[in-house]
Every structure is written in C-alpha cells, then in structure tokens.
Design a protein that fits this description.
By secondary structure, the chain is of the alpha+beta class. Helices cover 36% and strands 20% of the residues. The protein has 4 domains: 200 residues, Rossmann fold, CATH 3.40.50; 213 residues, Isoleucyl-tRNA Synthetase, domain 2 (Alpha-Beta Complex); 59 residues, no CATH class; 142 residues, Orthogonal Bundle (Isoleucyl-tRNA Synthetase, Domain 1). Strands 3, 4, 5, 6, 7, 8, 9, 10, 11 and 12 form a 10-stranded mixed beta sheet that branches. A 4-stranded antiparallel beta sheet has the order 2-1-13-15. It has a 4-stranded antiparallel beta sheet with strand order 18-17-20-19. The radius of gyration is 35 Å and the shape is elongated. Bound molecules: zinc ion (3 copies). The site of one zinc ion has 3 residues, from strand 12.
C-alpha cells in the first residue's frame, strides 16, 4: 500500500541456524582477540523465583514497607585526631554491611567533622550536619570529599578481607546530600552504582549471598540466614550496637520492590554475566564514526558521539530461555572454556550436532575435557542487539558462504533508522564491525526524526491525536502521503502530520500532475495521436517546447545530483517546481495548440513535447510517487511501445541530455 520494496524471498531471520552460526563465528573472533570476559551485572532479582526481573516487572511490585535502617559508624584508622573518629553511613539494608568494601563520598561536596560532647568525632556531609549534632557539639573542621579519598577505616564486620589492602574512602559523583549522611557504604554485589564505583576504583568484588538469598559460609555465625528476614537484620544491628558501632537506628517507611509473581522482596543482586570489552576498541569506534556521513551531521558529535564517549563494556549475556545461545562451553571440573565458532567445530568436538542450534537441543551437546571433566554449555543466551549488529555478516551466512557478495556489499553504502536507534542498531552494527574487522559497517547513515501532530506534540493514544497511516493513505492516497513527507522537511527533523497539510501538498504536486496527464490523455485520445508516427526535432520546435524540454533536463540533472547526496527533500521540491511550471506555464500557454484542428507540425510538436516530458517524468518520479509513476508510464510509454520494460520500476533512472 505504501509502495515499499522488500525482498520477501530472501529475508534474514536471526532465529535461523545459518544466522546463528555466523553470529557464533563473530563471537569466536571477538573471543580470540581477548575481548570476551565474564563479570557481573547487578539486577533486580527474586531469590525465591531465582530469576532476574526486567524494569517493567519491577515497576509492578512496589509496596510501602517499614525496614530497620541504621546509621553505622566506620572507625577511621591512623587519624590525626586524638579522639575516636568515625565516618557515618546510613543504610536501609543492614544485611549488606557484612559485604562492605568501601565508603563513597562525593568529591565535590563539603564534609564536616563533628566533635560530639560524648568525646567522639563524626564525618558527615556539611549539608546534613544538623541532623547529627546535639547541643554542645561543635564542628572540628571541614574538608572537600576529594580530600577524604584514601582515608583508611575499619569495616564494621570482619568478613571481607582485601588481600592485604585496607578499606578506604573512594568517590562517586552519584552520592548526594539529600538524605542519610552524604556517605554511601559500598557493597558491589548489591547495587548497580556500588558495582560501577568499585570496579572503577579497583575495589575487590565480594558476594556473600547465594542465589536463594541466604548468607554463605563466609558470614560466620549468620551463614544460612535469609537476608531480607527482619530478625536477621535486627540481630546484625544488635551485633553492631554491642560494639558501639551504631549512631542511630529506626524503622523507616519506604517504597520497596517486590516480586510480582511471589511477593518476595527483591534484592539488587550481582549475577554472573558475560561482557564484550567494547571499551578496548573505543578509540577505533570513535574514529570509524567520524568517517561516516551522518545525516544530520550533528548526530556524529552529538547524540552518537556522546554515547561513544561514555561507552561501557557490552553486557552480552541474558538469563533467558529464548535467544541465540552463547557458544561457550565450560568444563565442570577444571573451568577450561571453549568458544565455538561453527557447526563443523562443534561436530568435531562433540561428534554430533543438535537438531537445531537453539535451546534445549544445543544443551544436550557436551564432550569430555582433557582433565576428565565434562564440557557443558554455559546457560546464557545473548543480547538480541548483538544479533542485529551481526547483520552485515550473518544475513549472508558469512564467512561460510557468499564471500563474494559480502565483499561487494560490505561496508553498506547506506542505512536509515529513527533517531532512537543511536543506542540500538547504529551502535550494535558499529560495535560488532569494529570489533571484528576494525571497520565501520556503513558509509552513510540517515537518521529519521519522529512524526508529531498538528501542534508539534507527540502522538499518543491517550491524547487521541494519533493519525492512523492506513486511514491517511485511504483518504489522500499513498503517493500524496509519501510526497508530503518527502517534500515537507528534511527527514531528520520532526514532521508535523495532519490531514490538511497532506491535502495542501497533494494539490501542489500529485493533483497538478494528474491534471496534466488527464489533459494529455484526453486530447491525444481525441486526435488519435500516436507519437511513433511523428517526428519533429526538438531544435525545430517552438520556443515553449524547447523551454519545457530544457526545464525537464535541468530537473533530471538536479534530482540525480540531490539523490546522490541523499537529499530527497530538495529533490522532491525541484520536481514540484517542474510540475508547477508544466501545468501553469506550458499547458496553460499552449492550450490552443492542442485544441487546433488537424495535425500540423506545430500541434505534433506540442503533443510530442508533452509526451516526452511525461514519459521522462514517470521515470524521474518513480522513487517518490511510485503509483502515479507507474500509471503514467503504462499510459504514455508502454501503450505506445510494447518492447519497453513492463514496469517503470524496471527502467533505468533517466539521464539528462547535456
Ligand atoms: Zn519471586
Ligand atoms: Zn527514616
Ligand atoms: Zn577440565
């Protein structure tokens, strides 16, 4: 209905075994370069269902609950003060304190050292100090957060050992002075931000909670207890209090996410996860992007450039059932791992192939390790964005087939998607390609803007301002709709879309052209005009004929050049001017010639000229308004020349006469 060419005989489907095999091949190459590694990803997690939850699942389960919270005292070691000195940090999850590995301050915030009348000193953010001061307390000194970095302190529980290093203060720009103490206790297994900060500062990762939410053996007397159990948290706080490490505790009401399936309070929990070290090729990705012709150009250093500047490693794995299986097999004894890059490789190692490369079949394939253990596939599947980013290779089952086609098609001349694909397809294509070949997979990227309503507002069902495109096609015709969007504004701008605008645009191009066509058809019919029976060299035709012919060829030249520059909008406007000239000047000034009786050379010139212009126009407008183009072509060209290609869309694009 829209006039859109798609090759349904050769789609690429990411679920096909051939596609998966190519993806595996790419992953193996990435692994061979040393970029595939296992790390952790902190996600909302239900310890009862033993599964991670997506953000929309989490959003379904928020409940107001009262949890025991504690402001714990972390004793400063080697301090300059003669009195006992502590850094205070507040937590709503006392069960994370045994896993504390660092304290984070904001480097740009000011902190105060309170000297309490009880003889102790406490560091807190200056903006929050009033919450911690009683009558008679005083400020001993102040310091910026960045000046507190590296101060060693004693953890409140003895379970984390940092291999000879001490617990210290680090910085995180996510720390605020909106609540608590302006100091955040870091337990990297239980907070996304904690994880990031600790990784950045090279602080060790520890996780003392098993997949069912129970403390592991590492936590001595608390081993085996469920971390969200209220009694456990009370016991932990009592333990601290007995050692004078509690500044304050209270039951705090807050909104906390629960599992929508089983109502268990969720944990933020570090799950083993596989990553691709995209940061290792960051500079190459930036260089590749710089060489791409981004339209509009500001995407290069703006939206996409910023995204690349803040690049993090690609979290590749997903704990789901459906998807492209991660082709990594691991020994259950010695931990040896092997990445598989083809079916042939799998067959050689395992002696058999699965019915298909998906779960569950793929997980039946195993072989024995040199150590006597068994090589089993890891349970994860991969991020669908890696599938999409593999498209230049996998659509051709490269490198197993189509080497010639691949070298011809790669890198692609041109891709186009909406602006929200910056972090999606534009990124995944560039990342996979840069990792594997070092090159950009595309040369020109046309980034589309969004369609808005008459007042420039986003269309949404709730506002009732959505225009159904099929309804608009019904009302105005597909060509009018296409031409409106093409000629209205550059495609990367937001486009206002409303019926009146489409109707106005239609009157200026589609309607005019159809009127000209109808005019020709009517009078050529009356006169039984057959262009094959007449010949008048252009040079011998009247001035207006030569003028409109020149306008035609000038337009062909312009449209061709503009399309080569991916500027379909200017090209559409040039076409609109030509049709306007044709209708307003050529037809209107020449009516008498078509109406004349008989068929002298002057009248034949007029018919020939209009016939030639319409024939050329049908080819020229074919990419813009394919249906009218075809109608014109069939009536003007094919009806007179049975040997012409059967469709305008099989013709060459017209070339201008010099
Ligand atoms: Zn659950
Ligand atoms: Zn509270
Ligand atoms: Zn082994």
């Amino acid at each position: 209905r829209l006039g859109y060419w798609v090759d349904f005989d050769k789609p690429y489907m990411t679920l096909a075994d051939d596609y998966i095999e190519s993806v595996w091949n790419l992953l193996k190459k990435i692994d061979e370069k040393g970029y595939l590694y296992q790390g952790h990803r902190v996600s909302p997690y239900c310890p009862h269902c033993e599964t991670t939850l997506s953000s929309h699942e989490v959003a379904q389960g928020y409940k107001d609950v009262k949890d025991l919270t504690v402001t714990a005292k972390f004793r400063v070691l080697d301090g300059q003060e003669s009195e006992p000195t502590y850094i205070l940090a507040w937590t709503t999850t006392p069960w994370t304190l045994p896993s504390n590995v660092a304290l984070a301050v904001n480097g740009e915030l000011e902190y105060s050292l309170i000297h309490s009348s009880n003889g102790e000193n406490y560091w807190v953010a200056s903006g929050l100090k009033d919450n911690f001061m009683a009558d008679g307390d005083e400020i001993r000194k102040t310091a910026m957060g960045r000046d507190l970095v590296g101060i060693p302190y004693e953890p409140v529980f003895p379970y984390v050992t940092l291999e000879g290093k001490r617990h210290v203060v680090v910085t995180s720009n996510h720390v605020t002075e909106e609540s608590g103490t302006g100091v955040v206790h870091m337990s990297p297994a239980f907070g996304e931000e904690d994880y990031r900060v600790c990784k950045e500062h090279g602080v060790v990762f520890v996780n003392f909670v098993d997949l069912t939410g129970l403390f592991t053996e590492d936590v001595g007397p608390y081993a085996g207890r469920f971390v969200k159990d209220e009694a456990l948290n009370i016991d932990l706080v009592k333990d601290l209090a007995a050692r004078n490490l509690v500044f304050e505790k209270h039951k705090h009401e807050h909104s906390y996410p629960h599992c929508w399936r089983c109502d268990t309070p969720l944990l933020y929990y570090a799950i083993d996860s596989w990553f691709i070290e995209t940061t290792a090729v960051k500079q190459q990705m930036i260089a590749n992007s710089q060489a791409v012709n981004w339209m509009p150009e500001h995407i290069k250093d703006g939206r996409f450039g910023n995204f690349l500047d803040n690049l993090v490693d690609w979290n590749l794995s997903r704990s789901r059932y459906w998807g492209t299986p991660l082709p990594v097999w691991k020994c259950n004894q010695c931990g040896e791992r092997q990445t598989i890059g083809s079916k042939a490789e799998l067959l050689e190692l395992a002696g058999q192939l699965p019915a298909e490369l998906h779960k569950p079949y793929i997980d039946e394939i195993s072989w024995s390790c040199n150590c006597g253990g068994e090589m089993k596939r890891v349970p994860e599947v991969i991020d669908v964005w890696f599938d999409s980013g593999s498209m230049p290779f996998a659509q051709l089952h490269y490198p197993f087939e189509n080497q010639e086609a691949f070298s011809r098609l790669y890198p692609a001349d041109y891709i186009s998607e909406a602006v929200d694909q910056t972090r999606g397809w534009f990124f995944s294509l560039l990342a996979v390609s840069t990792l594997v070949t070092g090159q950009s997979p595309y040369k020109n990227v046309l980034v589309l803007g969004h369609v808005l309503d008459e007042n420039g507002k986003k269309m949404s069902k709730s506002k009732g301002n959505v225009i159904d495109p099929l309804e608009a096609i019904e009302l105005h015709g597909a060509d009018a709709l296409r031409f409106y969007f093409l000629s209205n504004t550059q495609p990367w701008n937001s486009q206002r879309f409303y019926h009146k605008a489409v109707a106005e645009s239609k009157a200026k191009f589609v309607d005019l052209l159809q009127n000209v066509h109808a005019f020709y058809a009517l009078y050529a019919g009356i006169d039984g005009f057959n262009p094959a029976q007449h010949q008048v060299p252009v040079a011998e035709r009247p001035l207006l004929d030569r003028w409109v012919t020149a306008r035609l060829h000038e337009t062909i030249r312009q449209v061709d050049g503009l399309l080569a520059d991916y500027d379909a909008t200017s090209a559409a406007r040039v076409l609109q001017e030509l049709v306007s000239d044709l209708s307003t000047w050529y037809i209107r000034r020449n009516r008498d010639r078509f109406w004349a009786s008989g068929m002298d050379a002057d009248k034949a010139s007029a018919f020939l000229t209009l016939n030639e212009v319409l024939a050329m126009l049908s080819k020229l407008i074919a990419p813009f308004t394919p249906f009218i183009a075809e109608e014109l072509y069939q009536n003007i060209v094919r009806s007179a020349d049975a040997s012409a290609p059967v469709s305008v869309h099989l013709c060459d694009f017209p070339a201008a006469d010099e």
